[in-house]
From TrEMBL:
UniProt keywords, alphabetically: Membrane, Transmembrane, Transmembrane helix
Pfam families (alphabetical): EAL, GGDEF
Protein name, UniProt field: Diguanylate cyclase/phosphodiesterase
Regions crossing the membrane: 34-52, 59-79, 85-106, 118-138, 150-174, 183-203, 215-233, 279-301
Domain EAL: 497-753
Native organism: Dactylosporangium siamense
Signal peptide: none
Amino acid sequence: MVLRRDRLWLALLVLGALCTALFALDVAADLASAVIGVVCIAAWAFGPRLHAVHPRRPWRLMTAAASFFLVGIIVRALLVDQPAPVAQIGDAFTICGFGFFIASLVTFQSRWGIDRHALVDGLIVCVGSALASTLLFVQPAASIPGRPLIVTLIAGLYPLLDTVTVLLVANLAFTTAKRQPSFMLMGAMMVLVFVGDLGYAIIGRHGDVTGPRLMALPFLLAFTLGGAAALHPTAKALARATPLPIQAWSVPRMLLIGPAVATPFVLTVTLSADTPVKRWALGLGGAAIVALLLARASAAVQSHAAAQRRFEHQATHDPLTDLPNRRMLSIMVERLLADERGDQRGDRAANVWMFYLDLDGFKLVNDSWGHPAGDQLIVSIGTRLRHALPDTATIARVGGDEFVIVQRCTEPEAMANARRIMECVEHPLTVVTAEGGTAEVVIGASMGIVQAPRNTRADRADALMRDADTAMYRAKESGRNRWTVFDASMRDAVRERVEIEVALRAAVAQEQLSIAYQPIVAMDTGRPAGAEALCRWQHPVRGWIGPNMFIAVAEDSNLISALGAWVLRESLLQLARWRAGGVVDDDFWMSVNVSPRQLGDPAFAERLGRTLRQTGVPAANLVLEITESVMVEGSDLTERVLVELRALGVRISVDDFGTGFSALGYLRRHPVTGVKIDRSFVNGLGTSAEDEEIVRAVVAMSSALHLAVVAEGVETEAQRDVLLALGVPLAQGWLWGRAVDPDAFAAAWAVRVALPAAAPSD
């Protein structure tokens, strides 16, 4: 059976415990102690390699320390009966071992970093330990008469070495917030070393340098735990610390610091300060601890104040650009509006102006070059704005790609600022791409500008920002890469739009909308071949609301999916009723508009198929009308949904064809079955030769691709005649009737559908 490398530390613990038990029972004691020493030295030497621990220098130093400790133990045992200074040769090796061990701890500490609070806390423990060691062990050992000087020095040196070790271990413990098992094993090892040295320090008070064999047990256990620490998989975590966010005096920390603080007072009570050395030691030790406590308290107060300032800055500034954020901007605008001295500068025309800037094309940079490139762009724009605008201008980042600039200035100064802002954005920028290369990007911006009226209340800062935001969106709607100055009519339009959205949500939820149907006729017979389902809304208070208004609101507010699903379901149910009642024949189809958002739903085709099965309408009798933008801007998901719809048998027609990106390549790449010639070209038929040529070209292209052609917006017989001459087979418009409710449609057209009607080809 092969022992897993992540279980070797457990095997070493078992081996160490067994050897320690044999040593305690005096069964092959020398062999047991030698086995522990050799195995643990091997663990320190080779254990870090097993788990790819880096750096290995601290472990090499610890291996050297263990080697010197082991040699010291062996030499001390061999020379125990020799006179001084020969008997102290073993101590020389042990002291060297302490040197390497301390160097190892210092190396760990240098990797972790030194926190001043942890250092002060460690010094408090160190001073307390040093004071106790000096008065309890060093001074009594030095006072023993008739003993060689070398013995006295070594007896006093061990407690001091332990004190330094205590300082380093305490500092390590105070530095990290996460103590892995390897660290805990190392800490337990140090406790056992300290216990062992304490035992020798106690007997050293009476002049003894050797003691019972069992006094070596703590050192054997220490070796075992240290070797297990090197073999534990978490040994690599010792190369880095998890810093404590706050160096608080917690209960565990106070259990270490408390006894150290109490040491001078306890020793003063328990020891008689009958010599100047004791008095000076107690006085200096107590003063040092008090000074360290004061330093710790002062540092804690300073750190708290610094943390408070840092938190306040983080709460009020953007982390990427370090510009004020929306919260800080509101405060600064309120101060500007409340500052009456602004009107006392001599120019009564000065007022508070706000510029709301939104970057056009920022998403494209993120999608093309990666988010780091987008972050670089944001930082560069912020830097440019700071350099280009006056120092009196406040620049804030209030969103992902949105900046706000506020300044008290005159109107000519405000317009000059607007030009500077746009120039900052339009100038090419170089960014580092996710692949490590560089790319030059050019973006634009839409900006809304608003002037705060004089004597504006300070609490209107948010309202001012809303007005600037409204003007910015108006600039976007006007074509982007421009600025628009706010006027009150924009606020009224926004308020009306919000009110319409609220009413529309209720109308969709309560199915208060209706559907009207406009016939699509065969040009040669004048009989209806199909009908287009058009959503209508008669508001109980506002009255008639045109689809151009509420469809746009539905698109922006994400209501279009629910609204579109309802229109599809109701129009298919109506077609099923007409088919069942003989109002229309089996070739009659229903044409329904679908939005890009619906086509971006991966489950759209599946749900539509379920609706077709439930209503009993064949898929070929449904035509879905899409916009040209779906073909141009659609994603891979949209393309997949279109393919799934065609697989169902549903036909797909391009609405308003000719007004956008009417390229032959788009029609060939997408699974469309027909096009609808936009009314703007139909209007000019009979009077505009150019419109006639466009329609002729569309018919020729559609015929080559085997696409059905429908002309919309036909209002006059002259337009009808031109379309007939050009070979357009299907049309709709007021010439044959407006969109009407289902009953009116049936009454007007049922008697005219006796003969088969033409339909868009598959």
